[in-house]
Amino acid sequence: MTDVNLETLLAEKLIGDSPKMQQLRTIIKFAGRCNSSIMITGPSGSGKEVVADAIHSISDRGNAANIAVNCGALPEHLIESELFGHEKGSFTGAVNQHVGLFEQADNGTIFLDEIGDMPINMQVKLLRVLETRIVNRVGGNRNIGIDVRVIAATHKHLGESIKAKAFREDLYYRLCVVPIEVPALNERAEDIPALIAHFLKNQSEANPLPVFTEEALAAMQRYEWPGNVRELRNVVERASVFFAGREIFAEDVAILVQSVIAPANQNVETAASAPSDAWAAAQSTQGSPNTVHRENNVRDLNAHMQSEERRIIMNALDRSHGVVSRAARSINIKRTTLIDKMRKHNIDWQVEDHTDYKIAV
Ligand SMILES: Nc1ncnc2c1ncn2[C@@H]1O[C@H](COP(=O)(O)OP(=O)(O)OP(=O)(O)O)[C@@H](O)[C@H]1O
After folding, report:
1. Ligand 1: does its nearest atom lie under 6 Å from the Cβ of 68?
2. Domain end among 232, 264, 291
3. Which residues, 6 or more positions from 337, have their beta carbon under 8 angstroms from its beta carbon?
4. Which of 177, 203, 287, 301 sits at 20 to 30 Å (Cα–Cα) from 138?
5. Could you tell me the residue range of the domain that residue 247 belongs to?
């Protein structure tokens, strides 16, 4: 691939020209040329999968398979056979032979998303495959050689998982040959107008597009974007419906971002028509009187944030009648992330007597 083609491809896939994005593109170009394992970190929705996809596309493996696996979404008892395959009859339900994802990705790339969620016993097996480049199907006795480039990603601090013995240090170093960090959107607010234009271009042609005024763009750049680029994409989609063919002003931005997080001192019903905390912060660099008052009452920021997170999750689950996927969508996080957080906060259907929270939905 010529340098010009490579630049064009990267510019199409990864929108944004801020210094942080330019730096990221430089690392991606380097990563595309080498064959080492890569660990991509960064907050949820920041674009880790987009980066992994870009690396695959510009690499020599670009024409071979690029297989993405969400390690947090695979049921624990199926992970091994999903990743490495199984032979017919190797366990109850194995009615056919199954070629695992590693074999399917031969000569190409496998993207192991949410690697921090991989069960510890599978981490040992993954490490062995990375070291030997050989897979064994469950119930099989053949060594199958594979040539696969591994890209892993996580939004977790794996250092903490390693300390807690939930993630193997040897696997971490094996995967983290080329570490890449994707910055949060609020660290590159300069990219927001270009991202908005990009997402508007992808909207249905059925409705006339809205027009973000300069002041609305500035307000969007002041907002914190806790859900990063994914949240921005959702807000642009919402804008295309609410403001089809109309101009969007700064005050309209509050309406667009409001449904993401309810303010701390409001109940769920009233929160639906009020701007979010992050929006309140964006409105004024001084903070509104309301914000200042709430902050003065906070004596332990960590504990406060934990209890806020729990409260928001409980409200979302209540509104979705315990349907986890719907609750996750309503607060703009992945279903697997919500399940993680439910575990962290000990939310389950046994604890809460009034609602039947269905973790597996
Ligand atoms: N730089 C970018 N240019 C264009 N689209 C982007 C960019 N970054 C992210 N996106 C879009 O934002 C959304 C979220 O990106 P992605 O899934 O890559 O995030 P992630 O960091 O992998 O999230 P998670 O941690 O939740 O898996 C996707 O729709 C993606 O296409």
Report:
1. no
2. 291
3. 44, 72, 155, 328
4. 177
5. 186-291
Pull the structure tokens for residue 290: 């309301």
Looking from the CA of residue 49, the nearest atom of ligand 1 is: 18
Ligand 1 centre to CA of 233 (Å) is 9
Q: Are residues 151 and 54 in the same domain?
A: yes
Using the mean position of ligand 1's atoms as its centre, give its distance from the Cα of residue 351 in Å: 34
Other C-beta atoms closer than 10 Å to the C-beta of 302 total 8
DSSP reduced 3-state for 288? coil
pLDDT given for residue 298 in this prediction: 52
Residue 23 shares a structural domain with residue 161: yes
**How high is the ipTM of this complex?**
0.99
DSSP 183: P
**Interval 291-329: pLDDT, tens:** 323 344 455 566 667 767 877 888 788 777 778 888 888
Instruction: Examine the pLDDT at 236 and tell me if it is beyond 90.
Output: yes
Domain holding 303: CATH number? 1.10.10
What is the total count of domains within the chain?
3
- Cα separation, 172 vs 335, in Å, equals 25
Same domain? 92 vs 120: yes
